[in-house]
Amino acid sequence: MANLIVDEKDQRFLLNEVLEVEGLCETEQYADFSKEMFDMILTEAQKLAENEIFPTLVESDRVGCKLEDGQVYVPECFRTPYKLFCEGGWNAMSFSPEVGGQGIPLSVRTAAHEWFSHNFSFMAYPGTAEGAAHLIEVYGTEEQKTKYMEKMIAGEWGGTMVLTEPGAGSDVGNLSTKAVRQEDGTYLIQGSKIFITAGDSDLVDNIIHPVLARIEGHPMGTKGISIFLVPKYLVNDDGSLGRRNDFEIAKIEEKMGIHGSATCAMNFGDNGDCYAELLGEEMQGMKVMFQMMNEARIGVGLQGFASASIAYLHALQYAKERMQGSSIMEFKNPDAPRVPIIEHPDVRRMLLWMKSNTESMRAMGYYCAYLFDLAHTAGNDDDREKWLGLTEVLTPILKAYCSDVAFRVTETAIQVYGGYGFCSEYPVEQFLRDEKIASLYEGANGIQAMDLVARKLGMNKGAHFMNLLGEMNNTVAKAKGVESLKDLAEDVEGAIGALADMAMFFAKCGKEGKFLVPLGNSYPFLMMMGKVVSAWLLLWEAVVAAEKLDGDGDGASDTAFYQGKVAGARYFIKHVLPEIDGTIRAIKSEDMTIMEIPDEGFAS
Protein backbone atom coordinates (compact mmCIF):
# COMPACT_ATOMS: atom_id res chain seq x y z
CA MET A 1 0.00 0.00 0.00
CA ALA A 2 1.56 3.26 -1.14
CA ASN A 3 0.40 5.44 1.76
CA LEU A 4 -1.95 5.39 4.74
CA ILE A 5 -3.57 8.83 4.33
CA VAL A 6 -5.56 8.97 1.07
CA ASP A 7 -6.23 6.39 -1.62
CA GLU A 8 -4.67 8.39 -4.43
CA LYS A 9 -6.05 6.05 -7.05
CA ASP A 10 -9.60 6.66 -5.86
CA GLN A 11 -8.90 10.37 -5.75
CA ARG A 12 -7.72 10.49 -9.38
CA PHE A 13 -10.59 8.21 -10.43
CA LEU A 14 -13.13 10.62 -8.96
CA LEU A 15 -11.61 13.73 -10.45
CA ASN A 16 -10.59 12.42 -13.86
CA GLU A 17 -13.01 9.63 -14.72
CA VAL A 18 -16.19 10.45 -12.80
CA LEU A 19 -16.32 14.25 -12.56
CA GLU A 20 -14.00 14.77 -15.54
CA VAL A 21 -12.62 18.02 -14.10
CA GLU A 22 -10.28 18.38 -17.06
CA GLY A 23 -13.28 19.86 -18.85
CA LEU A 24 -12.97 22.94 -16.63
CA CYS A 25 -9.75 23.79 -18.46
CA GLU A 26 -11.83 24.49 -21.56
CA THR A 27 -13.53 27.41 -19.80
CA GLU A 28 -12.26 30.97 -19.73
CA GLN A 29 -11.86 30.93 -15.94
CA TYR A 30 -9.54 27.90 -15.88
CA ALA A 31 -7.94 28.06 -19.32
CA ASP A 32 -4.47 28.37 -17.79
CA PHE A 33 -4.74 24.92 -16.18
CA SER A 34 -4.49 21.37 -17.50
CA LYS A 35 -4.96 17.84 -16.26
CA GLU A 36 -1.19 17.54 -15.95
CA MET A 37 -1.11 20.58 -13.68
CA PHE A 38 -3.92 19.18 -11.54
CA ASP A 39 -2.04 15.89 -11.22
CA MET A 40 1.15 17.72 -10.28
CA ILE A 41 -0.70 19.68 -7.58
CA LEU A 42 -2.00 16.47 -6.03
CA THR A 43 1.41 14.83 -6.18
CA GLU A 44 2.99 17.76 -4.35
CA ALA A 45 0.17 17.76 -1.78
CA GLN A 46 0.85 14.09 -1.12
CA LYS A 47 4.56 14.74 -0.59
CA LEU A 48 3.91 17.55 1.88
CA ALA A 49 1.35 15.46 3.75
CA GLU A 50 3.49 12.34 3.98
CA ASN A 51 6.81 14.04 4.72
CA GLU A 52 5.78 16.96 6.93
CA ILE A 53 2.19 17.03 8.17
CA PHE A 54 1.40 13.41 9.02
CA PRO A 55 4.56 13.01 11.12
CA THR A 56 3.33 15.77 13.48
CA LEU A 57 0.01 14.05 14.22
CA VAL A 58 0.96 12.02 17.29
CA GLU A 59 3.52 14.46 18.72
CA SER A 60 1.13 17.42 18.53
CA ASP A 61 -1.54 15.37 20.28
CA ARG A 62 0.78 14.51 23.16
CA VAL A 63 2.48 17.89 23.48
CA GLY A 64 -0.60 20.07 22.99
CA CYS A 65 -0.70 23.85 23.25
CA LYS A 66 0.30 26.03 26.20
CA LEU A 67 -0.68 29.50 27.38
CA GLU A 68 2.05 31.64 28.96
CA ASP A 69 1.75 35.33 29.78
CA GLY A 70 -1.23 35.75 27.50
CA GLN A 71 0.43 34.11 24.49
CA VAL A 72 -0.48 30.71 23.05
CA TYR A 73 2.39 28.48 21.97
CA VAL A 74 1.50 25.67 19.57
CA PRO A 75 3.46 22.41 19.28
CA GLU A 76 6.95 23.14 18.02
CA CYS A 77 6.61 20.37 15.42
CA PHE A 78 4.06 22.54 13.55
CA ARG A 79 6.54 25.29 12.77
CA THR A 80 8.32 23.81 9.74
CA PRO A 81 5.19 22.32 8.14
CA TYR A 82 3.37 25.64 8.51
CA LYS A 83 6.22 27.49 6.86
CA LEU A 84 6.29 25.01 3.96
CA PHE A 85 2.50 25.06 3.71
CA CYS A 86 2.46 28.83 3.28
CA GLU A 87 5.48 28.93 0.97
CA GLY A 88 3.74 26.39 -1.24
CA GLY A 89 0.66 28.58 -1.50
CA TRP A 90 -1.62 25.84 -0.19
CA ASN A 91 -3.60 28.38 1.83
CA ALA A 92 -4.13 30.57 -1.24
CA MET A 93 -5.38 27.99 -3.72
CA SER A 94 -8.99 29.12 -3.91
CA PHE A 95 -8.37 32.88 -3.96
CA SER A 96 -8.35 34.72 -7.27
CA PRO A 97 -4.99 35.79 -8.71
CA GLU A 98 -6.13 39.41 -8.39
CA VAL A 99 -5.82 39.19 -4.59
CA GLY A 100 -2.72 37.01 -4.44
CA GLY A 101 -4.29 33.58 -4.88
CA GLN A 102 -3.91 30.89 -7.50
CA GLY A 103 -7.47 30.63 -8.83
CA ILE A 104 -7.46 26.82 -8.74
CA PRO A 105 -10.81 25.02 -9.14
CA LEU A 106 -12.40 24.22 -5.79
CA SER A 107 -12.69 20.53 -6.70
CA VAL A 108 -8.92 20.28 -7.13
CA ARG A 109 -8.31 22.39 -4.03
CA THR A 110 -10.58 20.03 -2.06
CA ALA A 111 -8.68 16.99 -3.28
CA ALA A 112 -5.35 18.60 -2.39
CA HIS A 113 -6.56 19.60 1.07
CA GLU A 114 -7.84 16.09 1.76
CA TRP A 115 -4.18 15.12 2.08
CA PHE A 116 -3.77 17.60 4.93
CA SER A 117 -7.13 17.40 6.70
CA HIS A 118 -6.43 14.17 8.58
CA ASN A 119 -4.42 16.44 10.90
CA PHE A 120 -7.06 18.98 11.78
CA SER A 121 -5.05 20.35 14.70
CA PHE A 122 -2.53 21.59 12.16
CA MET A 123 -5.05 22.63 9.52
CA ALA A 124 -7.04 24.69 12.02
CA TYR A 125 -4.51 27.52 11.80
CA PRO A 126 -4.33 28.11 8.02
CA GLY A 127 -7.95 26.96 7.60
CA THR A 128 -9.53 29.56 9.87
CA ALA A 129 -7.30 32.26 8.37
CA GLU A 130 -8.48 31.32 4.89
CA GLY A 131 -12.12 31.57 5.93
CA ALA A 132 -11.64 34.95 7.60
CA ALA A 133 -9.78 36.29 4.55
CA HIS A 134 -12.65 35.18 2.30
CA LEU A 135 -15.02 37.25 4.44
CA ILE A 136 -12.88 40.35 3.99
CA GLU A 137 -12.60 39.65 0.25
CA VAL A 138 -16.39 39.63 -0.11
CA TYR A 139 -17.55 42.14 2.50
CA GLY A 140 -14.53 44.28 3.36
CA THR A 141 -13.83 47.81 2.22
CA GLU A 142 -10.91 48.44 -0.10
CA GLU A 143 -9.02 49.81 2.88
CA GLN A 144 -9.66 46.64 4.88
CA LYS A 145 -8.62 44.44 1.98
CA THR A 146 -5.37 46.37 1.60
CA LYS A 147 -4.70 46.40 5.33
CA TYR A 148 -5.42 42.76 6.13
CA MET A 149 -5.94 40.39 3.20
CA GLU A 150 -2.53 40.20 1.56
CA LYS A 151 -0.75 39.03 4.71
CA MET A 152 -3.58 36.68 5.69
CA ILE A 153 -3.52 35.01 2.29
CA ALA A 154 0.27 34.74 2.49
CA GLY A 155 -0.01 33.04 5.87
CA GLU A 156 1.92 35.78 7.68
CA TRP A 157 -1.20 36.69 9.65
CA GLY A 158 -3.91 34.41 10.95
CA GLY A 159 -7.66 34.66 11.28
CA THR A 160 -10.46 33.05 13.26
CA MET A 161 -14.25 32.92 13.62
CA VAL A 162 -15.34 34.37 16.99
CA LEU A 163 -19.03 33.52 17.47
CA THR A 164 -19.80 31.38 20.52
CA GLU A 165 -20.51 32.67 24.03
CA PRO A 166 -21.14 30.76 27.26
CA GLY A 167 -24.85 31.59 27.07
CA ALA A 168 -25.17 31.76 23.30
CA GLY A 169 -23.85 28.76 21.44
CA SER A 170 -26.36 27.54 18.89
CA ASP A 171 -28.68 30.32 20.09
CA VAL A 172 -26.54 33.00 18.43
CA GLY A 173 -29.22 35.68 18.76
CA ASN A 174 -28.82 35.61 22.54
CA LEU A 175 -25.24 36.89 22.46
CA SER A 176 -24.29 39.67 24.89
CA THR A 177 -21.03 40.97 23.40
CA LYS A 178 -21.55 44.65 22.63
CA ALA A 179 -19.98 47.19 20.30
CA VAL A 180 -19.83 50.87 21.19
CA ARG A 181 -19.68 53.28 18.26
CA GLN A 182 -16.83 55.85 18.30
CA GLU A 183 -16.77 59.30 16.68
CA ASP A 184 -14.18 58.21 14.10
CA GLY A 185 -16.39 55.37 12.84
CA THR A 186 -14.56 52.60 14.68
CA TYR A 187 -16.00 50.60 17.58
CA LEU A 188 -15.01 49.33 21.01
CA ILE A 189 -15.90 45.69 21.74
CA GLN A 190 -16.71 44.26 25.15
CA GLY A 191 -17.67 40.67 25.97
CA SER A 192 -16.51 37.09 26.36
CA LYS A 193 -16.31 34.30 23.78
CA ILE A 194 -15.53 30.60 24.09
CA PHE A 195 -14.59 27.63 21.88
CA ILE A 196 -12.60 29.77 19.43
CA THR A 197 -10.66 27.45 17.13
CA ALA A 198 -7.04 28.60 16.61
CA GLY A 199 -7.88 31.56 18.85
CA ASP A 200 -4.20 32.41 19.24
CA SER A 201 -0.84 31.04 18.17
CA ASP A 202 2.82 31.91 17.81
CA LEU A 203 2.91 30.79 14.16
CA VAL A 204 1.96 34.27 12.89
CA ASP A 205 2.74 37.89 13.72
CA ASN A 206 -0.88 39.04 13.91
CA ILE A 207 -4.37 37.51 13.97
CA ILE A 208 -7.51 39.16 12.61
CA HIS A 209 -10.62 38.06 14.51
CA PRO A 210 -14.09 38.45 12.93
CA VAL A 211 -16.27 38.91 16.04
CA LEU A 212 -20.06 38.83 16.30
CA ALA A 213 -21.43 41.60 18.53
CA ARG A 214 -24.45 43.88 18.93
CA ILE A 215 -24.07 47.63 18.51
CA GLU A 216 -25.50 49.45 21.50
CA GLY A 217 -29.15 50.26 20.90
CA HIS A 218 -29.70 47.65 18.20
CA PRO A 219 -32.51 45.11 18.66
CA MET A 220 -32.15 41.79 20.43
CA GLY A 221 -32.11 38.53 18.50
CA THR A 222 -30.24 37.71 15.32
CA LYS A 223 -31.63 40.80 13.52
CA GLY A 224 -29.53 43.17 15.61
CA ILE A 225 -26.17 41.39 15.20
CA SER A 226 -23.21 42.89 13.34
CA ILE A 227 -19.73 41.52 12.70
CA PHE A 228 -16.43 43.28 13.37
CA LEU A 229 -12.75 42.86 12.59
CA VAL A 230 -10.68 42.82 15.78
CA PRO A 231 -6.92 42.59 15.16
CA LYS A 232 -4.61 41.16 17.81
CA TYR A 233 -2.25 44.03 17.04
CA LEU A 234 -3.53 47.27 15.55
CA VAL A 235 -2.12 48.00 12.09
CA ASN A 236 -0.49 51.37 11.44
CA ASP A 237 -1.00 53.35 8.24
CA ASP A 238 2.34 52.11 6.90
CA GLY A 239 1.37 48.48 7.51
CA SER A 240 3.55 48.02 10.57
CA LEU A 241 2.11 46.63 13.79
CA GLY A 242 1.01 48.95 16.56
CA ARG A 243 -0.21 48.35 20.09
CA ARG A 244 -1.59 45.07 21.41
CA ASN A 245 -5.38 45.23 21.32
CA ASP A 246 -7.40 45.07 24.52
CA PHE A 247 -8.40 41.44 24.72
CA GLU A 248 -6.91 38.44 26.46
CA ILE A 249 -6.77 34.71 26.00
CA ALA A 250 -8.41 33.52 29.22
CA LYS A 251 -7.60 29.85 28.75
CA ILE A 252 -7.09 26.99 26.31
CA GLU A 253 -9.94 24.48 26.51
CA GLU A 254 -8.95 20.97 27.66
CA LYS A 255 -10.47 18.74 25.01
CA MET A 256 -11.02 15.10 24.15
CA GLY A 257 -8.99 15.46 20.95
CA ILE A 258 -7.34 17.89 18.51
CA HIS A 259 -4.93 18.84 21.31
CA GLY A 260 -2.62 20.67 18.92
CA SER A 261 -5.38 23.13 18.05
CA ALA A 262 -5.67 26.01 20.52
CA THR A 263 -9.39 26.24 21.29
CA CYS A 264 -9.54 29.45 23.30
CA ALA A 265 -11.76 31.37 25.67
CA MET A 266 -11.31 35.10 25.03
CA ASN A 267 -12.25 38.24 26.97
CA PHE A 268 -12.63 41.42 24.95
CA GLY A 269 -12.40 44.97 26.29
CA ASP A 270 -11.75 44.42 29.98
CA ASN A 271 -9.98 47.79 29.96
CA GLY A 272 -12.55 49.45 27.70
CA ASP A 273 -10.17 49.82 24.78
CA CYS A 274 -10.72 46.89 22.38
CA TYR A 275 -10.51 48.39 18.88
CA ALA A 276 -12.80 47.00 16.17
CA GLU A 277 -13.88 47.81 12.61
CA LEU A 278 -17.31 47.05 11.18
CA LEU A 279 -17.22 44.39 8.45
CA GLY A 280 -20.00 44.85 5.95
CA GLU A 281 -23.09 46.76 7.02
CA GLU A 282 -24.66 47.22 10.43
CA MET A 283 -27.04 44.42 11.51
CA GLN A 284 -25.85 42.21 8.63
CA GLY A 285 -23.71 40.03 10.89
CA MET A 286 -25.71 36.86 10.35
CA LYS A 287 -25.59 37.24 6.57
CA VAL A 288 -21.82 37.70 6.68
CA MET A 289 -21.39 34.92 9.22
CA PHE A 290 -23.30 32.40 7.15
CA GLN A 291 -20.83 32.71 4.27
CA MET A 292 -18.06 31.67 6.64
CA MET A 293 -20.26 29.06 8.31
CA ASN A 294 -21.18 27.43 5.00
CA GLU A 295 -17.52 27.32 3.97
CA ALA A 296 -16.68 25.88 7.38
CA ARG A 297 -19.44 23.26 7.10
CA ILE A 298 -18.04 22.08 3.78
CA GLY A 299 -14.64 22.01 5.49
CA VAL A 300 -16.07 19.83 8.26
CA GLY A 301 -17.31 17.39 5.64
CA LEU A 302 -13.78 17.34 4.23
CA GLN A 303 -12.40 16.72 7.71
CA GLY A 304 -14.87 13.85 8.00
CA PHE A 305 -13.91 11.87 4.94
CA ALA A 306 -10.22 12.66 5.49
CA SER A 307 -10.48 11.14 8.98
CA ALA A 308 -12.41 8.18 7.60
CA SER A 309 -9.79 7.68 4.90
CA ILE A 310 -6.80 7.52 7.21
CA ALA A 311 -8.67 5.28 9.65
CA TYR A 312 -9.76 2.89 6.92
CA LEU A 313 -6.34 2.63 5.31
CA HIS A 314 -4.66 1.95 8.65
CA ALA A 315 -7.24 -0.72 9.50
CA LEU A 316 -6.83 -2.29 6.07
CA GLN A 317 -3.06 -2.51 6.43
CA TYR A 318 -3.37 -3.95 9.94
CA ALA A 319 -5.87 -6.55 8.74
CA LYS A 320 -3.45 -7.68 6.05
CA GLU A 321 -0.56 -8.02 8.50
CA ARG A 322 -2.15 -9.23 11.73
CA MET A 323 -1.97 -13.04 11.91
CA GLN A 324 -4.67 -14.62 14.03
CA GLY A 325 -6.93 -17.64 13.76
CA SER A 326 -7.14 -20.16 10.96
CA SER A 327 -9.01 -20.08 7.71
CA ILE A 328 -12.77 -20.44 8.05
CA MET A 329 -12.47 -23.58 5.95
CA GLU A 330 -10.08 -25.15 8.48
CA PHE A 331 -11.48 -23.90 11.78
CA LYS A 332 -11.76 -27.46 13.12
CA ASN A 333 -8.11 -28.22 12.40
CA PRO A 334 -5.97 -27.26 15.45
CA ASP A 335 -2.81 -27.53 13.34
CA ALA A 336 -4.03 -25.20 10.60
CA PRO A 337 -1.68 -22.27 9.89
CA ARG A 338 -2.55 -18.81 11.20
CA VAL A 339 -3.92 -16.41 8.57
CA PRO A 340 -4.17 -12.63 8.27
CA ILE A 341 -7.39 -11.42 9.89
CA ILE A 342 -8.52 -9.96 6.54
CA GLU A 343 -9.50 -13.55 5.66
CA HIS A 344 -12.13 -13.66 8.42
CA PRO A 345 -15.68 -12.88 7.26
CA ASP A 346 -16.55 -10.34 9.97
CA VAL A 347 -13.33 -8.40 9.41
CA ARG A 348 -14.05 -8.33 5.68
CA ARG A 349 -17.55 -7.05 6.47
CA MET A 350 -16.12 -4.21 8.54
CA LEU A 351 -13.53 -3.33 5.91
CA LEU A 352 -16.05 -3.26 3.07
CA TRP A 353 -18.42 -1.15 5.18
CA MET A 354 -15.56 1.28 5.85
CA LYS A 355 -14.46 1.31 2.21
CA SER A 356 -17.91 2.00 0.76
CA ASN A 357 -18.72 4.70 3.29
CA THR A 358 -15.36 6.42 2.98
CA GLU A 359 -15.46 6.45 -0.82
CA SER A 360 -19.07 7.68 -0.94
CA MET A 361 -18.24 10.54 1.44
CA ARG A 362 -15.21 11.49 -0.64
CA ALA A 363 -17.43 11.50 -3.72
CA MET A 364 -19.96 13.72 -1.94
CA GLY A 365 -17.28 16.21 -0.92
CA TYR A 366 -15.66 16.38 -4.35
CA TYR A 367 -19.04 16.63 -6.06
CA CYS A 368 -20.09 19.56 -3.88
CA ALA A 369 -16.83 21.35 -4.66
CA TYR A 370 -17.29 20.62 -8.36
CA LEU A 371 -20.75 22.19 -8.25
CA PHE A 372 -19.14 25.45 -7.16
CA ASP A 373 -16.75 25.16 -10.12
CA LEU A 374 -19.70 24.61 -12.48
CA ALA A 375 -21.46 27.64 -11.00
CA HIS A 376 -18.30 29.73 -11.38
CA THR A 377 -18.00 28.80 -15.05
CA ALA A 378 -21.73 28.80 -15.88
CA GLY A 379 -22.66 30.67 -19.02
CA ASN A 380 -26.01 31.90 -17.77
CA ASP A 381 -27.85 32.71 -14.54
CA ASP A 382 -30.17 29.70 -14.73
CA ASP A 383 -27.31 27.21 -14.79
CA ARG A 384 -25.49 29.10 -12.05
CA GLU A 385 -28.59 29.04 -9.86
CA LYS A 386 -29.08 25.34 -10.49
CA TRP A 387 -25.56 24.35 -9.43
CA LEU A 388 -25.54 26.62 -6.39
CA GLY A 389 -28.99 25.37 -5.47
CA LEU A 390 -27.67 21.81 -5.34
CA THR A 391 -24.93 22.92 -2.94
CA GLU A 392 -27.56 24.53 -0.71
CA VAL A 393 -29.36 21.20 -0.34
CA LEU A 394 -26.22 19.10 0.01
CA THR A 395 -24.21 21.28 2.45
CA PRO A 396 -26.04 20.21 5.66
CA ILE A 397 -25.79 16.58 4.54
CA LEU A 398 -22.09 16.88 3.76
CA LYS A 399 -21.45 18.42 7.18
CA ALA A 400 -23.68 16.25 9.37
CA TYR A 401 -23.83 12.91 7.59
CA CYS A 402 -20.12 12.82 6.83
CA SER A 403 -19.04 13.85 10.32
CA ASP A 404 -21.23 11.23 12.00
CA VAL A 405 -20.46 8.41 9.57
CA ALA A 406 -16.76 9.26 9.64
CA PHE A 407 -16.81 8.92 13.43
CA ARG A 408 -18.32 5.47 12.99
CA VAL A 409 -15.56 4.61 10.51
CA THR A 410 -12.89 5.58 13.05
CA GLU A 411 -14.74 3.51 15.66
CA THR A 412 -14.83 0.52 13.31
CA ALA A 413 -11.10 0.91 12.67
CA ILE A 414 -10.55 0.42 16.40
CA GLN A 415 -12.73 -2.69 16.22
CA VAL A 416 -10.59 -4.11 13.41
CA TYR A 417 -7.49 -3.61 15.55
CA GLY A 418 -9.17 -5.31 18.51
CA GLY A 419 -7.73 -4.53 21.93
CA TYR A 420 -4.67 -2.93 20.37
CA GLY A 421 -6.89 -0.31 18.79
CA PHE A 422 -7.87 0.90 22.25
CA CYS A 423 -4.23 1.51 23.16
CA SER A 424 -2.47 4.81 22.49
CA GLU A 425 0.57 3.07 20.99
CA TYR A 426 -1.59 2.58 17.87
CA PRO A 427 -2.95 5.63 16.02
CA VAL A 428 -6.59 4.71 15.48
CA GLU A 429 -7.79 5.80 18.94
CA GLN A 430 -6.54 9.33 18.14
CA PHE A 431 -8.41 9.32 14.83
CA LEU A 432 -11.63 8.76 16.77
CA ARG A 433 -10.88 11.41 19.40
CA ASP A 434 -9.94 14.01 16.80
CA GLU A 435 -12.98 13.36 14.60
CA LYS A 436 -15.66 13.56 17.30
CA ILE A 437 -15.63 17.37 17.38
CA ALA A 438 -16.81 17.49 13.76
CA SER A 439 -20.40 16.65 14.68
CA LEU A 440 -20.48 19.43 17.27
CA TYR A 441 -18.99 22.58 15.83
CA GLU A 442 -20.11 24.85 12.95
CA GLY A 443 -23.71 24.07 13.94
CA ALA A 444 -24.38 20.79 15.74
CA ASN A 445 -25.70 18.05 13.49
CA GLY A 446 -29.24 18.30 14.83
CA ILE A 447 -29.28 21.92 13.69
CA GLN A 448 -28.04 20.89 10.25
CA ALA A 449 -30.94 18.44 10.07
CA MET A 450 -33.52 21.10 10.98
CA ASP A 451 -31.97 23.43 8.40
CA LEU A 452 -32.34 20.71 5.76
CA VAL A 453 -35.96 19.92 6.58
CA ALA A 454 -37.25 23.38 7.50
CA ARG A 455 -35.38 25.42 4.88
CA LYS A 456 -33.40 23.59 2.23
CA LEU A 457 -36.07 21.16 0.96
CA GLY A 458 -38.40 24.06 0.22
CA MET A 459 -35.87 26.55 -1.15
CA ASN A 460 -36.86 28.07 -4.48
CA LYS A 461 -40.26 26.36 -4.12
CA GLY A 462 -38.55 22.98 -3.89
CA ALA A 463 -36.75 23.37 -7.24
CA HIS A 464 -33.28 22.74 -5.80
CA PHE A 465 -34.39 19.47 -4.20
CA MET A 466 -36.16 18.39 -7.39
CA ASN A 467 -33.05 19.18 -9.44
CA LEU A 468 -31.05 16.91 -7.16
CA LEU A 469 -33.54 14.10 -7.67
CA GLY A 470 -33.24 14.70 -11.41
CA GLU A 471 -29.45 14.36 -11.31
CA MET A 472 -29.82 11.10 -9.39
CA ASN A 473 -32.35 9.69 -11.82
CA ASN A 474 -30.06 10.52 -14.76
CA THR A 475 -27.45 8.21 -13.23
CA VAL A 476 -30.06 5.50 -12.64
CA ALA A 477 -31.02 5.65 -16.32
CA LYS A 478 -27.39 5.10 -17.34
CA ALA A 479 -26.95 2.26 -14.85
CA LYS A 480 -29.99 0.46 -16.24
CA GLY A 481 -28.08 0.19 -19.49
CA VAL A 482 -25.34 -1.84 -17.80
CA GLU A 483 -26.48 -5.43 -17.42
CA SER A 484 -24.46 -6.15 -14.28
CA LEU A 485 -25.83 -3.05 -12.53
CA LYS A 486 -29.53 -3.27 -13.36
CA ASP A 487 -30.55 -4.59 -9.96
CA LEU A 488 -28.53 -1.88 -8.21
CA ALA A 489 -30.11 0.77 -10.42
CA GLU A 490 -33.57 -0.46 -9.48
CA ASP A 491 -32.72 -0.36 -5.77
CA VAL A 492 -31.40 3.19 -6.00
CA GLU A 493 -34.38 4.25 -8.10
CA GLY A 494 -36.69 2.96 -5.38
CA ALA A 495 -34.73 4.83 -2.72
CA ILE A 496 -34.93 8.07 -4.71
CA GLY A 497 -38.66 7.63 -4.99
CA ALA A 498 -38.92 6.99 -1.26
CA LEU A 499 -36.91 10.16 -0.59
CA ALA A 500 -39.25 12.22 -2.76
CA ASP A 501 -42.26 10.61 -1.07
CA MET A 502 -40.88 11.48 2.37
CA ALA A 503 -40.44 15.12 1.37
CA MET A 504 -44.08 15.17 0.24
CA PHE A 505 -45.10 13.53 3.52
CA PHE A 506 -43.34 16.28 5.46
CA ALA A 507 -45.10 18.92 3.36
CA LYS A 508 -48.44 17.24 4.09
CA CYS A 509 -47.68 17.22 7.82
CA GLY A 510 -46.90 20.93 7.63
CA LYS A 511 -50.23 21.70 5.95
CA GLU A 512 -52.03 19.70 8.63
CA GLY A 513 -50.26 21.57 11.43
CA LYS A 514 -48.21 18.53 12.49
CA PHE A 515 -44.95 20.46 12.50
CA LEU A 516 -43.39 18.28 15.18
CA VAL A 517 -43.39 15.26 12.89
CA PRO A 518 -40.85 16.65 10.39
CA LEU A 519 -38.92 18.60 13.03
CA GLY A 520 -38.75 15.71 15.47
CA ASN A 521 -37.60 13.39 12.69
CA SER A 522 -35.28 15.81 10.92
CA TYR A 523 -32.09 14.02 11.98
CA PRO A 524 -33.27 10.52 10.95
CA PHE A 525 -34.37 12.06 7.64
CA LEU A 526 -30.97 13.71 7.09
CA MET A 527 -29.22 10.40 7.68
CA MET A 528 -31.69 8.69 5.37
CA MET A 529 -31.02 11.28 2.66
CA GLY A 530 -27.28 10.91 3.21
CA LYS A 531 -27.55 7.19 2.50
CA VAL A 532 -29.58 7.78 -0.67
CA VAL A 533 -27.11 10.40 -1.93
CA SER A 534 -24.22 8.05 -1.09
CA ALA A 535 -25.87 5.16 -2.93
CA TRP A 536 -26.38 7.39 -5.98
CA LEU A 537 -22.75 8.51 -6.03
CA LEU A 538 -21.47 4.94 -5.62
CA LEU A 539 -23.76 3.82 -8.43
CA TRP A 540 -22.36 6.61 -10.61
CA GLU A 541 -18.84 5.37 -9.86
CA ALA A 542 -19.89 1.78 -10.56
CA VAL A 543 -21.19 2.76 -14.00
CA VAL A 544 -17.81 4.29 -14.86
CA ALA A 545 -15.92 1.32 -13.41
CA ALA A 546 -18.10 -1.22 -15.26
CA GLU A 547 -17.40 0.56 -18.54
CA LYS A 548 -13.66 0.33 -17.82
CA LEU A 549 -13.94 -3.37 -17.01
CA ASP A 550 -15.76 -3.99 -20.27
CA GLY A 551 -13.05 -2.14 -22.20
CA ASP A 552 -9.34 -2.66 -22.49
CA GLY A 553 -7.88 -2.54 -18.99
CA ASP A 554 -4.42 -1.31 -18.11
CA GLY A 555 -3.46 -4.39 -16.15
CA ALA A 556 -4.37 -6.47 -13.10
CA SER A 557 -4.03 -3.51 -10.74
CA ASP A 558 -6.62 -1.45 -12.59
CA THR A 559 -8.91 -4.45 -12.96
CA ALA A 560 -8.86 -5.06 -9.21
CA PHE A 561 -9.48 -1.37 -8.54
CA TYR A 562 -12.54 -1.21 -10.81
CA GLN A 563 -13.84 -4.48 -9.41
CA GLY A 564 -13.46 -2.94 -5.98
CA LYS A 565 -15.52 0.08 -7.03
CA VAL A 566 -18.36 -2.12 -8.24
CA ALA A 567 -18.14 -4.30 -5.12
CA GLY A 568 -18.24 -1.26 -2.84
CA ALA A 569 -21.34 0.06 -4.59
CA ARG A 570 -23.04 -3.33 -4.48
CA TYR A 571 -22.31 -3.80 -0.78
CA PHE A 572 -23.59 -0.34 0.17
CA ILE A 573 -26.73 -0.56 -1.94
CA LYS A 574 -27.59 -4.08 -0.77
CA HIS A 575 -26.57 -3.81 2.90
CA VAL A 576 -26.61 -0.12 3.97
CA LEU A 577 -29.25 1.50 1.77
CA PRO A 578 -32.06 -0.84 3.00
CA GLU A 579 -31.68 0.79 6.42
CA ILE A 580 -33.83 3.64 5.10
CA ASP A 581 -36.86 1.33 5.12
CA GLY A 582 -36.88 1.27 8.91
CA THR A 583 -36.45 5.06 9.03
CA ILE A 584 -39.42 5.54 6.71
CA ARG A 585 -41.61 3.23 8.76
CA ALA A 586 -40.66 5.00 11.99
CA ILE A 587 -41.25 8.51 10.63
CA LYS A 588 -44.58 7.67 9.02
CA SER A 589 -45.88 6.21 12.27
CA GLU A 590 -46.08 9.84 13.42
CA ASP A 591 -45.15 8.64 16.88
CA MET A 592 -44.24 11.64 19.06
CA THR A 593 -43.09 9.85 22.19
CA ILE A 594 -40.05 12.14 22.25
CA MET A 595 -42.34 15.09 23.02
CA GLU A 596 -44.99 13.25 25.03
CA ILE A 597 -42.75 11.73 27.69
CA PRO A 598 -42.76 14.00 30.78
CA ASP A 599 -39.41 15.49 31.76
CA GLU A 600 -39.54 13.49 34.98
CA GLY A 601 -40.08 10.33 32.93
CA PHE A 602 -36.47 10.31 31.71
CA ALA A 603 -35.26 9.55 35.23
CA SER A 604 -36.89 9.77 38.63
Blueprint of the fold:
Blueprint: H1 8-18, H2 35-53, H3 57-63, E1 66-68, E2 71-73, H4 79-87, H5 106-114, H6 120-139, H7 142-153, E3 157-159, E4 178-181, E5 187-196, E6 206-215, E7 225-231, E8 233-235, E9 241-244, E10 247-252, E11 264-268, E12 275-278, H8 285-321, H9 345-377, H10 381-417, H11 428-435, H12 445-456, H13 463-480, H14 486-511, H15 516-520, H16 522-550, H17 556-576, H18 579-588, H19 593-596
Parallel strand pairs: 3-6, 4-6
Antiparallel strand pairs: 1-2, 4-5, 5-11, 5-12, 6-7, 7-12, 8-9, 10-11
Helix pairs in contact: 1-9, 2-5, 5-9, 6-7, 6-8, 8-9, 8-10, 8-11, 9-10, 9-16, 9-17, 10-11, 10-12, 10-13, 10-16, 12-16, 13-14, 13-16, 14-16, 16-17, 16-18
Strand order of the largest sheet: 4-5-12-7-6
Q: If helices are DSSP runs of H or I spanning 4 or more residues, what is the number of helices? A: 19
Global mean pLDDT: 94
- Rg (CA only): 25 Å
The overall strand count is 12
Low-pLDDT windows of residues:
none
What form results from the Cα inertia axes?
A: globular
Structural class: alpha+beta
Summary, kept brief:
With 604 residues, the protein is α+β, with helices and mostly antiparallel strands. It has helices spanning 8-18, 35-53, 57-63, 79-87, 106-114, 120-139, 142-153, 285-321, 345-377, 381-417, 428-435, 445-456, 463-480, 486-511, 516-520, 522-550, 556-576, 579-588, 593-596, and strands at 66-68, 71-73, 157-159, 178-181, 187-196, 206-215, 225-231, 233-235, 241-244, 247-252, 264-268, 275-278.
